[in-house]
Amino acid sequence: MDALVVYESMFGNTRRIAEAVAEGLSRRVRAEAVEVGSAPAQVGPDIGLIVVGGPTHAFSMSRTSTRRSAAQQATGPLVSRGDGVREWLATLRTPAARLGSAAFDTRIAKPRMPGSAARGIAGRLRRLGVRAVGPAQSFLVIGTQGPLVDGEVERARQWGERLAASLPATAPGESA
Fold first, then answer.
1. Would you state the torsion angle of the CA atoms of residues 27, 128, 117, 17, taken in this order, to the nearest 10 degrees?
2. Longest Cα–Cα distance in the chain
3. Which of 34, 30, 102, 90 has its CA nearest to residue 64?
4. b/e for 33-56, b at 16 or more Cβ within 10 A?
5. Which InterPro entries match (predicted)?
6. What is the Cα Rg of the chain in Å?
7. CATH number of the domain where residue 13 is located
8. What distance in Å separates the CA atoms of residue 143 and residue 156, rounded to the nearest whole number?
9. Where are the alpha helices (DSSP H) in 35-151?
10. What residues contact 33, with CB distance under 8 A and at least 6 apart?
């Protein structure tokens, strides 16, 4: 079984979390982190787990308008420049019956704002018929552009390890 980590990231913080999750997963299964603009429109039969994450914008997943606002605030190039996770999930085709999923987001640590992109992502995956293997997770950043709060990359790596441990035992690259 393989795992695919799909992420949307404006300033690079969500990308760092996605890479750490993939690293944690890769201790048990083959895992790859892919920016949403390069993510497949259909999940192949070799993928047994899909982990999807993005930044929390305006209490949920980003939209065209919130990505435009992020671009205006950016002091450098954006990581994700096109459609976001919301649009990708709207067109995703999956072998839902056998696919597991997990969702995560990045969000500002203080003040603690309501809403969560991860909960929205998890809901979209559930509506696609994909079963969750664990609760949605939030990883914290300091301010809109970051950086990540100390320890969040390691926490993401450990979360990836826990996700992998919850999967059926297979060798890396082996189909379940």
1. 20
2. 46
3. 90
4. bebbeebeeebeeebbbbbbbbbb
5. Flavodoxin/NO_synth (IPR008254), Flavodoxin_CS (IPR001226), Flavoprotein-like_sf (IPR029039)
6. 15
7. 3.40.50.360
8. 19
9. 64-73, 85-91, 117-127
10. 5, 6, 7, 15, 18, 19, 21, 22
Give the residue numbers spanning the domain of 116.
Answer: 2-165
Does 173 map to a domain? no
Per-residue pLDDT of the chain (176 residues; tens, 9 = 90+): 799 999 999 999 999 999 999 999 999 999 999 999 999 999 999 999 999 999 999 889 999 888 888 889 888 888 998 999 999 999 999 887 789 999 999 999 987 777 899 999 999 999 999 999 999 999 999 988 999 999 999 999 999 999 999 887 654 444 44
In a domain, 26, yes or no: yes
Counted domains in the chain: 1
Within-domain flag for 155: yes
Q: Is-contact 115 63, C-beta < 8 A?
A: no
Q: What is the DSSP letter of 113?
A: -
Residue 171 maps to a domain: no
CA 85 to CA 74: how far, in whole Å?
19
